[in-house]
Every structure is written in structure tokens, then in C-alpha cells.
Design goal:
By secondary structure, this protein is α/β, with parallel strands linked by helices. About 30% of the residues lie in helices and about 25% in strands.
Length: about 260
């Protein structure tokens, strides 16, 4: 008896995504900060990470490291029919984005360098970060949350840390600045029902901690598409109005010509 299903690739042969490589690089940075890797090992593995094309090449890079960032291929299922029309990615609801657990990453350090957390990562109950002569960015627009309320503790010494939150998230700022500054501009904005609460603590010395509120990429795409559609509709309405005006002018001319002919 023959099998009508197409042959599916082995798990190790599936192509890895940029998000998979970013999760592995983040786990390597954490291992470097914890002293599990020296700088030479870190650079070798990071180079291998960005060269990896499949899960089989990516998985061995962090096999001997602890952490929740281990990359696994998705379940092998027959591929669905593909739509050639690109649309914005659907966002999870706030209850769906509060997932529990320990979080993808619990700290970030930038010493004369930088760190970044963005995309689909899980914010732990408490995230500690430190910047000295460097900078860090925590982007929560597409993040999931381990708890309903999370704390981000920022220490910036002659450096800067920027926290980006999406609309709907309540922000509470409890940090202080010593010859530096903490951004309180987003404090007091009420959150959506069921949305996370982000508490930002710490201090800035000759540095700063900024808080920005930006719409997610998918929402920006929807707004851009809505504006484009609105422009098209206005253009079409102007075209129809212009055509109607021309028809009216032509009708008036024909009417005048008929009257002149009648007068003769």
C-alpha cells in the first residue's frame, strides 16, 4: 500500500529562522556574562550561530549550556496551502501573553558595549540590567510575560537603558536619577483590562533610563495599510467628483447649443 502523503524533512534538516538564531545568541551572551564561556569560545559559537542554516547545525551550539533558550524545531506536519497575499501577523490577547514560567532571560549587562532584548521573548518576574559606558534596550512590544506584574531594575552609570512598551501596558517608574535621569513621561497612563503592569526601578548616575510607548510592528502595518486605503478612496472620490463635474459642464454646453439652434 502506497502512502499518499509527501515526504517530510527530518527535524534536523528544517531551516532555522532569524528568531531561532537570535535566541541562541542571547543564550550565549548570558553564558558569557555568567562565566560559563570565555570570550574566545563565545566568539566562535556566535559566529557558528549566524552561519547556521538548519536546526541540526544550531542545536549543538548550546547543548552543554543551561537555560530555557534551547531551540527546537516545530512539529513536523504537512505544510498547509500557502497564501501569496501578505497580511499583518495576528497578535495574542493580553491573557494569552501572560504565560508563567521563569522567563527567557533574567538579566542584561553592557560594559562599554550594549545588550538588547526584543521580539518574542518572555519577560521574567524580575529583570535586572546594568549599563556602564554602554547602552541597553528592552523592547516589550512583542514580548510575553511570566507574571501579571513584572519588575525591570535598571542601573545606568554613565550609560543608558531604554525600555519600549506597547500601548495598553501600565507603567510605574520608581527609579531615581543622580546627575542623571529617569523618564516618567509614560507613568499614569491607564492600562487595558488584563494587560501586564511594568514596574521600572533602579537608579541612573551620569546616565539615563528612558521609557517609550510604541505600537507593535503588526499594528504599524495595519495603520499603514489603513492610511493607504484611505488615500486610495479619497483619490477615487476626487476622480469621480471630477468626472461628474465634467459631465455636468458638457451637459450644460449641449443644452446651450440646443437653445441656440432653436432660436435660429
Amino acid at each position: 500500500m502506497t502512502d499518499d502523503q509527501p515526504d517530510l524533512p527530518a527535524a534536523a534538516d528544517l531551516r532555522a529562522s532569524d528568531a531561532d538564531r537570535e535566541r541562541v545568541s542571547e543564550q550565549l551572551r548570558d553564558a558569557l556574562a555568567e562565566g560559563r564561556l570565555d570570550m574566545e569560545e563565545f566568539e566562535e559559537r556566535l559566529d557558528a550561530t549566524y552561519k547556521a542554516r538548519t536546526y541540526g547545525e544550531l542545536a549543538p551550539i548550546t547543548r552543554d549550556l543551561p537555560g530555557a533558550g534551547t531551540v527546537a524545531p516545530p512539529a513536523l506536519v504537512p505544510p498547509p496551502s500557502v497564501s501569496l497575499v501578505k497580511g499583518p501577523a495576528e497578535e495574542a490577547s493580553w491573557p494569552e501573553r501572560i504565560v508563567g514560567g521563569d522567563g527567557t532571560s533574567t538579566w542584561g549587562v553592557a560594559v562599554m558595549s550594549g545588550f538588547e532584548r526584543k521580539g518574542r521573548w518572555t519577560v521574567p518576574r524580575r529583570f535586572d540590567c546594568f549599563a556602564f559606558w554602554g547602552g541597553g534596550e528592552l523592547d516589550l512590544r512583542e514580548a510575553y510575560f511570566a507574571e501579571r506584574e513584572v519588575t525591570i531594575n535598571c542601573v545606568a552609570v554613565m550609560g543608558g537603558i531604554n525600555v519600549i512598551v506597547p500601548p495598553g501596558v501600565e507603567v510605574v517608574v520608581r527609579g531615581i536619577g543622580i546627575m542623571g535621569g529617569f523618564d516618567h513621561s509614560e507613568e499614569g497612563v491607564p492600562g487595558d483590562p488584563g494587560a501586564p503592569r511594568v514596574v521600572i526601578t533602579g537608579f541612573a548616575f551620569w546616565g539615563g533610563v528612558g521609557v517609550e510607548r510604541k505600537v507593535p510592528k503588526a499594528e504599524r502595518q495595519r495603520l499603514k495599510e489603513a492610511r493607504r486605503q484611505e488615500r486610495l478612496e479619497r483619490r477615487e472620490a476626487r476622480r469621480e467628483l471630477h468626472a461628474s463635474h465634467l459631465d455636468h459642464v458638457h451637459e450644460m454646453r449641449r443644452e446651450r447649443e440646443r437653445r441656440r439652434g432653436g432660436e435660429r
